[in-house]
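Quick one - inputs below.
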Amino acid sequence: MKGIYYVVILYIFLMLPPVANLMESVMIIHMHMQMTLFAAIGFLLAPGMIRKFPRFFEEWNPNGIPGLLLFVLVIVYWTLPRSMDEALNLWYIELFKFISLPFLAGVPLRDSWKKLKSSWKNGLIIFFTLLFIVMGWLYIWSPNQLCNNYLLIDQITLGWGFLLTAVCMIIYLAYSYITDLAENI
Amino acid sequence: MEALKSYDWKDKANKALGISQEDARITKSYLSVAFIAILFGGLLGLLQGMNRAGILELPVWANYYKVLTAHGLLLVVVLSAFFTIGYFYAGLSHTLGGLLPKVRKMAWIGFWMKIFGFVLAVIPVLQGDASVMYTFYPPMAAAPMFYIGLVFIVLGVWMLAFGAFINVANWRKNHKGQHIPIFSFFATGVFVLLFFGSLPVAIEVFYIIPWAFGWIETINVMVSRTLFWAFGHTLVNIWYLTAISAWYVFIPKIIGGKRWSDLLTRVVVIALVIMNITGGFHHQIVDPGISESVKYMHVFMSLAIGFPSLMTAYAMFAVFEKTARKKGGKGLVGWYKKMPWGDVRFLAPFIAMAAFIPAGAGGIVQSTNQLNQVVHNSMWVVGHFHLTLGMTVVMTFFGVSYWLVPYVSGRVLTPKINKLGIIQTIVWTVGMVLMSGAMHWVGLLGSPRRTSYSTYFDNATALSWDPYLFFLAIGGTLLMIGVLLQVYAVFYMMFFAPKGETEFPMAEEEEDATPTPMWTERWGLWIVLMLTLVSMAYVIPLVDFIVNAPPGSPPFKTW
Ligand code: HEM
Ligand SMILES: [Cu+2]
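Output:
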């Protein structure tokens, strides 16, 4: 399990002030790259934690649905423009971002993923696809600045990032639908 | 079940009898075009080299930029693509039990579309209406026919990519739960990149055509450059992936060894496919309109591609050493004596690999912002890609030709041709080292690329370039000799060598290899990851270029 150390090193690296500042200087990288990486770190740390505290996960997340809800809640919270502003202005919200994304989003997602039926998994992807389309629409066509810390052009870029990600998820869904179909004939 | 059985039978028949006549004809045609392209391309290269050395003044009807455009197109668009396709289609046929009739038809349609497109593109070049070089950056504008030719070339490539996908999908349907044979795995990666990598350039060309016709007045220069390099850089890595496929799959067999870890080989392919397209930005390090932090992050992405390359270097030396030690090689470096140095099928690709050490180092130099400013658009860059492309990739192709051509034509590699190949390899190595060394050096001294001979009114700096440019011409002359030897060898092996059986030298896995997990086969997932990464990387500059667009540029004819 040497892999764990690399993940921890990456976690610390991403929190170093110059690295965090660079990533937060561009809105889309802040939301789509930094935040995704933090959630991914939780996802990678999860197996170790699940092994350490099996009872805890068994008790609180027996069928995967509570974990899924927690994940959705935390991620939706961080897609709001105001929460990004706060993370940039208040150090304790920044800290909350660093902790909540790995441990309240990445870890529960990993624990839930193997417990969930595929209908829930696809439901989750469909939910995020729709959410991303709505967010993309909001950021691209909103006439005013939604975030104090970023320019309008940053916001439009982020909007297109959301739409493109949604397109990628649609392609993924179509791909898994077609391959499943091909498996079953 | 019945279908499965007959398929296995076909597999076996294929192995025993070699490639079917029909599949062989496809590869032979593609390879012939590739080597004719290198013959003409090399000749034009020699003219350029002579001109740069101040030895030869090109006549008006063959001015430097026209020649340079043709040299670039012949070698970048024709040679590399035609070789890659011929090579992988032979491999698909061999490893998947023959091409499907439908796919064979697609390969021929693609072939003629590419040829037709190339003829359309070359006519205006020869007429002097398209001296835009192979990068055709707007606002330089060629005659519309040039771009229409490019459209056909891209459509031909797509035809071949889909042909390959259909053949692989068919095999997978009949071999549920099995891994795609490793060589076809490489082929899948290459065709995935060819298809997705050529999407941006297709968009660019469809944007240029109305502008070239004058239907729209201006063009967004930065958008078109960015779309071009999303493709251009991917193309470079397609050649690289093609070359390393030969290193991973065939070289171990030729030296009498086993393949390196199957899992890690597949991981290298997947990593290259996912991370490739975003590297395009390292060609735009001095372009305006991209903020510094974005450029910085892109450098990071480019250097990430170095990781699979380092894995490859490690893998190759591991295979060499292991094989040589099995044969009794001893000592820290003494094992190298056990390698088959007299076999051109090994020597040429080995030198190709060795060339990638300085070539890769030069690439890292160019990816670095400050160093890039020193060498940007100088002859250094030309030296760099003659090392990577002209040596690493092309010499691997040469090495492959010594078994692939006899294999598809039902002939054998004679000791005489092997010897000729060894001489060719040495001539090419010396020529390329001289030429690209001189190019690197004179570039550092400030000599620009894509500029015909000039002393700039006897400026002292420009005059100081002359000795290096002279070496460039000497190297170029040796290379032309190398081209002649190689083309002779290829057509001799294709039509005149003694008939016989040549094997398709695919190496086996180690006996004690651990089985490769099935997740490596999830191509849909890799493609979606690739698309996500590409969207992330391109959305920032593209939105900026489009939303904050300047008025745009009308077409210019600068020559
Ligand atoms: C006989 C062998 C060759 C000679 C003498 C030669 C020489 C040259 C010279 C002198 C230039 C022009 C530099 C400039 O003014 O910017 C050039 C450009 C180029 N060469 Fe070669 N070359 C040879 C083979 C190759 C091969 C085998 C390849 C690739 C497979 C290749 C790819 C290119 C490309 C892509 C360019 C750039 C064209 C451009 O800037 O638009 N060359 N070559
Ligand atoms: Cu590149």
